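FW: tagging you since you asked about this chain on Friday. Here's the raw sequence from the shared folder, copied in full. Didn't touch anything.
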Amino acid sequence: MSEALLAALLEVERHVGKLGWDQPARLFALVRTAELIVAEPQLAEALQAATPDGLSSVEQDEFHAGADLGETLAAIVWPPAVAGCALSLERAFLPSEAEADLPSDPQAAAKVIADHPRRLDLRVVVGVMREGQHHGVARVRGEDGDLLSSADLVPALAAALAHTFE
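HL: got it, structure written out here
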């Protein structure tokens, strides 16, 4: 795992976290900080505290996940200057024993999950690099402590993000 990728994901999670919960999915381009300063010299002062060999995140304000996140991500193609990307999203999860009782209808299942007393809300930030490295961090709603962190936190999302570089 790249230290620069993990640092960028932590920065994205802090940024999104400042806005509170119930945020839409948000997409970020990850650009090498030194290259960003060369391309956009007016940002040099704002980025002076950043590690030159690190990554800077650039939110894609026009991004809207739509009804099918997979389809939306499949339509994205990054220019060569983008070294990686990260996606922040919130999801509700149930304990595995509660998942067996979910209705097959997606809308009915969403209602059961939303009303379930043992539901966990997570903010997940997954990032991938053009070279294939990927990692994810997650925060449980109501917990101000440490983040969960793993290369395999949400493998399907990491795979979908990796396809944006193909």
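FW: The longest strand covers residues 84-93.
HL: agreed, and Residues 3-165 form one domain.
FW: great, closing this out.
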